[in-house]
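#struct-help
A.M.: can someone run this one for me? Single chain, 456 residues.
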Amino acid sequence: MTAGTGPWPALPSLPDPATDAVLAGPLLPELAHAFGGPFHFLLPDAFDANLRAMQDALTSAGVDGFVYFAKKANKAAVFVERAAAGGAGVDVASAGELREALGHGVRGEHLVVTGPAKDTALLRLAVQQGALIAVDALDELDALLGIALTGRVRPARVLLRCLPPQQPHSRFGMTEAELATATDRCVQAGDAIRMEGFSFHLSGYALQPRADLAAHLTDLCLKARTQGLEASRISIGGGLPISYTDADSWHTFLTRHHSRHYHAGKTFRTGDFYPYHSPNAGPRALAALLTTRPEGHGRPLADLLKDAGVILLLEPGRALLDRAGATVLRVQGVKDRDGYQLLTVDGTSLSLSEQWFNSEYLPDPHLLPQEPDSPAGLFPASVGAATCLESDMLTWRKVGFTRRPRTGDLLVYPNTAGYQMDSNESPFHDLALPPKVVIDHTDRRRPRWRLDRHFT
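D.P.: on it. Structure tokens below:
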């Protein structure tokens, strides 16, 4: 049952036939019984569709580009496998992630290694496998030069990461002066370094700053070519928003929610919430970005890239995982409070990583009653975790359920594949990490499932 409205602000998730089919069938109660605890289910067909749509957006704009799946957004192996099968690469930031990607079929040259201050072992492995390396600082470039000059296996493929002028306090990237020094060192390194272009990491989801910085990096590529460097591509990172809900629900929620709608009068700053609705989301956000005119230019970004012969690289995570999974927990305790219920489930808020940002994962959870006589009406409830921590709340908000929650019922948090379900998971209290179940809808008579083949 979805959450109701009434006096309780609601945030219904967008309709998704694949998720709805799983919710309507007998599979989730069976899996809950089998695992005896919380679990996640994955819908990789959604990942495939998102990837195709993103590639189509590049093709429609006439832009030569390449998509890397940001592996940090979800640890499941199936998404790496689908990225490899769909002609995409993978963005990794550790030796463990790099090995996982290789082990699940991604070619070394289709990896991009990001993250700050990479250790020597990771840099060496990246050079050996022919991965593209986003160099974040001058000392990192020096370390990479040492590896490339002594190893002589193949040249180190690098992008030089730019410190965004719009975010001068970012801890990622190099200043203009440092970029100039790094470019000179790449020239001096000769065949040991293959300098393929520039990259940036930009916080937030606004398109105009991304277009502006992408145009600037395109200009840097043209300048670097005059020094004899390849400089043929730029990476704009991730930051393509997705929509969890519709515009009216989101705007209504923002205007209505109040501390009285949260357990213990909890308050959240509206600006700390993820933008759960975006007018341009996922692949549409990419298409809109390509039609954006960077400041100081009279033509859209796509035209600038094409004229300069620059390949556009992007590293989406959440945008590829939209509607690609959900999280299932069982209600194991119910307390009556003043005008609402306080539910305790068999998992923790570490499976909803928005809490890490002192925020709240707002899409309404679905209640799946396990008894047919569950009373109908409007029953507000907040959701706490099975731990000894007062602050361990999955949902501080009093969600208006249309059935009375009972012990044994299932709660399904929708669309958690992107960053939510496993970024912060921990075996606190020696609780087992929730397993991931891959659901296959190829057999239309009934969904089939298997456990994800994550190596670690």
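A.M.: thanks! The chain has two domains: 17-43+323-451, 45-243+278-314.
D.P.: also worth noting: The mean pLDDT is 94.
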